Amino acid sequence: MKALYFENFGDSSVLTYGELPAPIIGDDDLLVKMTLIGLNYADIYRRKGEYHIEKHLPYINGYEGVGTIIACGSNVKQFRKGDDILFVDVPFANAEQVLVPVENAIKIPAGLDKKLVASIGLQGLTADFLAHDLGKNQPGENVFVHGISGGVGQILSQILSADGINVYGATSTVEKQQLALAQGAEKVFLRNSEWEKEYTSFFDTVYDGIGSTLADSISFIKNRGKVVFFGMAGGNPPEIDFIRLLSQSKSILTGDLWDYLTSSNEREFRSKRLFSYFQDGKIQISEPTVFPLAQGKKAHDFLESGKSMGKILLEP
Ligand SMILES: NC(=O)c1ccc[n+]([C@@H]2O[C@H](COP(=O)([O-])OP(=O)(O)OC[C@H]3O[C@@H](n4cnc5c(N)ncnc54)[C@H](OP(=O)(O)O)[C@@H]3O)[C@@H](O)[C@H]2O)c1
Fold it and tell me: Hey, whose CA ends up nearest to atom 27 of ligand 1?
């Protein structure tokens, strides 16, 4: 089968597209022919050697995608050949065929478009746990989302708005700003503009997946507020003065999606909760950008440039 792989950590030039042996199915596995594969920031961290990656020679990146089952292991009862599934936590996804343990497979509800599901899988389940397990905001609260027009940002901000929370955010371009406003945000600021002083100690919660902005995030929350820190798209966060935090009763919460997807039950109830926002028409996201898997390098460069708006997908 064809796959996108790399042998050494480094910049996007380490990526190679070529022939590798197809996986061999086990009793509790599904063999899936990939339709669309999600590209995520974590794949960049992994390619650079800065994040956990499954041992494999050569490394194959990617943990998320949508595809069609082409074979089922002998113990599999709940799926059949020909079913379409989503997965968000299975290694070696940057390939034409992926072995999915049956417990990691997520059913795609009838009526939801496969491309949409591929565009919302991992980022959507992240937005879901950030909002419902960490933020737990109440209607009427004011929250701020950094990178509001990114993949996680678009879904997170619309989950929060749909739940009655007032969403503010920041982004880098007027185009992204208009998109976030059209998706229901109260106010969207341009990064590096002069709005920050006015919003010091204003928000109940700041959602920060940029990392380098963590000190600002802490200053934006009011006493007893919290920062939900969940990623480093803009670079590593600065050192935090915990004694100062304590003196203002400010908190930092963190979380990794994988610790919230530890069983098939969790995958099912969390994905149902996420899909319901789309089925009820409460969330609209921008069209994903699709690259052929063979052009994985271009896709990595585009994601790292910060210019993307929403999901990047790879098509085998
Ligand atoms: N904790 C978890 O379980 C989990 C799961 C998934 C993702 N994440 C994290 O969530 C964050 C967002 O992921 P995503 O998939 O939504 O990515 P994304 O679509 O690329 O969005 C990230 C946004 O960050 C903004 N940004 C600010 N500074 C940047 C910089 N120096 N370089 C690039 N972008 C910059 C960009 O928006 P503007 O141009 O508008 O500022 C960009 O759209 C990442 O840090 C990722 O690692 C965490």
Answer: 234
pLDDT score at 52:
87
| CATH no. of 2-108+286-315 | 3.90.180.10
Position in ligand 1 atom list of the atom nearest CA 45: 47
pLDDT beneath 70: ranges in the chain: none
| The ligand 1 atom nearest the CA atom of 235 | 31
Report the topology of domain 122-257: Rossmann fold (3.40.50)
Q: What is the pLDDT of residues 86-97, one digit of tens each?
A: 999 999 999 999
Nearest to 311 by CA among 148, 94, 116, 89: 116
Bond into 58 cis (ω within 30): yes
Distance 85 CA to ligand 1 centre (A): 25
pLDDT of the residue at 258? 93
131 CA to middle of ligand 1, Å? Answer: 16
Q: Which two tokens stand for residue 58?
A: 């050569």
Give the tens place of pLDDT for each residue, 224-264: 999 999 999 999 999 999 999 999 999 999 999 999 999 99
Distances (CA, A) of 277 to 79, 112, 247, 269: 25, 12, 38, 13
Q: Give the integer Cα–Cα distance in Å for 137 and 227.
A: 12
- Report domain extents, the chain: 2-108+286-315, 122-257
Lining ligand 1 with CB less than 6 A are 40-42, 122-123, 126, 147, 149-153, 171-172, 176, 191, 209-210, 230-234, 255-257, 303, 306, 308
Q: Can you point out the beta strands (E) in 172-220? A: 187-190, 203-208
Tell me, what's the pLDDT at 186?
98
Distance 80 CA to ligand 1 centre (A): 36
